[in-house]
Amino acid sequence: MSRGRSPTIKDVAKVAGVSSATVSYVLNDLNKVTPEVDALVRRVAKELGYSRNNAARALKTGRNNIIGCILPTLTSPVFPEIAQAVQLRAEAHGYATLVIDSGNAPMREEKVVRTLAKHGVDGAVALLHPKFKPADPPLFPIVSLDAKFPGLDSVHADHYAGGRLMAEHAIALGHRRIGMLSGFQDLTSSFERRQGFVDAAAGRVELVWEVNVHLVPQLPPVAVEAIRRREVTMIACVNDLVAIAALSVLKDSGMSAPGDVSVFGFDDMQWASWPLIDLTTIRQPLAELGSRAADLLISRLDDRQRPVEDLVLPVTLVERGSTARVGLPLP
Amino acid sequence: MSRGRSPTIKDVAKVAGVSSATVSYVLNDLNKVTPEVDALVRRVAKELGYSRNNAARALKTGRNNIIGCILPTLTSPVFPEIAQAVQLRAEAHGYATLVIDSGNAPMREEKVVRTLAKHGVDGAVALLHPKFKPADPPLFPIVSLDAKFPGLDSVHADHYAGGRLMAEHAIALGHRRIGMLSGFQDLTSSFERRQGFVDAAAGRVELVWEVNVHLVPQLPPVAVEAIRRREVTMIACVNDLVAIAALSVLKDSGMSAPGDVSVFGFDDMQWASWPLIDLTTIRQPLAELGSRAADLLISRLDDRQRPVEDLVLPVTLVERGSTARVGLPLP
DNA sequence: CTTATCTATTTACACGATTAAACGACCTGA
DNA sequence: TCAGGTCGTTTAATCGTGTAAATAGATAAG
């Protein structure tokens, strides 16, 4: 105590006049002790400013009370919102969260998992590339974010329904000629979003052009050219970041949304609502995604036998100023 | 091994036919052993897939190889860039990083520090409110980000010079009547930015109005009104987020930058360069800020006696499309 | 050939907590 | 009264590493 060292369970035991086992029982809420002793121990512990040594506990129990959160990058508007929710929920359960970015490469994902294992995480929430190969046997339980993953628990938005929603809204606004900036189709969520759109649009909309793009706010030349051809009344984008890139191209080309062409995003990341951007989009509940994933992971940690669960969260349409009824002049 | 349990130092020792102490010496690179034994042990360890149990090591040595990174929030464009750099650098040194957001409140900062201590971090990089009171004695070393902090190592950009740079560029563009959206002055960086600006502007620029605002992309009504009065040719903002809020107000009011009024930001966060935003700003080297802070923290962990260090990084002017020479018509 | 000096390795304990098992005190029912 | 059960508490072993101290073996010095 006064000798700098922080007090251990034994110090508490000595002061309280009981054995260290008793202290441990009290502090772990196994109710094995009389109310008086319980109260006494708690009081003494608080007085001494006792706080459990996590390393010792981890060594003995094999549980570290740390979970990992693996995301493709932190420098994107979407993922930090998820990370924040995971962390908040984990903390409520007494877990700390190790947020790590995997740089979007499946190989690095596997390395990151090993790193996390080395640091003794009990499990992780992860947004994984479908090509990711889990170690066998797995180093720790993983909950897959954003997409179903064979053998893993998962939490994700209903991308397919979102795609349909986009198409139906576009049709309702009178759009018949649409260009599409879809994501590369190896990513499950990109695939499902497109699929939903295409299924709902079938026969009612002409998909004039389509370009696969990376999920970043820069477009490849072929996409820029497509936009400049002015052949469509709407550009449907795989996510908000890409939609912003499209808006940028429009601005650079002297066009604007929704006057010359409507632009439709997906995600409803925080900045989509800024007046400068003001993007019509499909909202996925990012925070809920994170907290549900944390919950799921922690239940899994408590019971490794429970059946694998796949949680699908609903999406909603958020109508803003980047889309308009076709043919309607600017207000 | 084959019994599920992962191999320990004793398993390695048994297979290699040496004692566990020898294995420990080898794996910790204390060169106390013959080259042959060294090689043998390493080979066996690799063969068994041995990996050190961090909890046991932490228990024995009191070092966890984890550092914390405390930031006001993750859902801001600026902080994740720093976090990413911290993490990358920490990983290179064999440390994992616990990123935590403190929600911008000094009281919560103190709580977060206790949480981190509970999870056994060896130290932390933190962006602290000046009112933050470190525990005494400190629970672990902290490197202060973004501002000097009494008694702590620190790494931050040269906010004062940045403020001057803003003023000088404004003057060079011919601006004489300027409105200012400054941050609340209890935050050191906001204070210094303003001070630099005011000092350099003295006598050459009229500060027509000034409003203290929170560092978020929404402005209070009084700021909105000030902007709408159209009394100035430039709005100087405490950071990019606030500058974006100003641009939003302009757009909502049927004005635009730089045609009606120039807008000047600070930070050069990632999105400032998007064509939709295209913000003239003062760049602070966010990634370098993070990695230098991590370096500094780790040196501190290795030597608690070294004198406190204050690292100031230079800022630069980034000229984009939100500012223009005064009186110049739109191109 | 003895004794001192190194050096490579091992022995043995500590770190702080958890927990099965042992223990003792008290109660209960025949 | 005594076997058996219950309850609250303690004893003691254990988790995997690190490391001071002991030990053995080789070398050098006298």
Write up this protein:
2 copies of one chain form a homodimer. In chain A, the strands form 2 sheets. A 6-stranded parallel sheet of chain A has the order 2-1-3-4-5-11, with helices on both faces. A 6-stranded mixed sheet of chain A has the order 7-6-8-9-10-12, sandwiched between helices. Helices cover 40% and strands 18% of the residues of chain A. The first copy, chain A, has helices spanning 9-16, 20-27, 35-48, 54-61, 78-92, 106-118, 159-172, 188-201, 221-228, 240-252, 286-302; strands at residues 66-71, 96-101, 123-126, 142-145, 153-157, 177-183, 206-213, 234-237, 262-267, 280-283, 310-313, 316-318. Chain A has 11 helices and 12 strands. Chain A has 331 residues and is an alpha/beta fold. Chain A folds into 3 domains: 9-52, no CATH class; 66-157 and 286-312, Rossmann fold; 159-284, Rossmann fold (3-Layer(aba) Sandwich), CATH 3.40.50. Chains A and B meet through helix 4, helix 5, strand 2, helix 6 and helix 10 of A and helix 4, helix 5, strand 2, helix 6 and helix 10 of B. Chain A binds a DNA duplex (30 and 30 nucleotides) through helix 2 and helix 4.
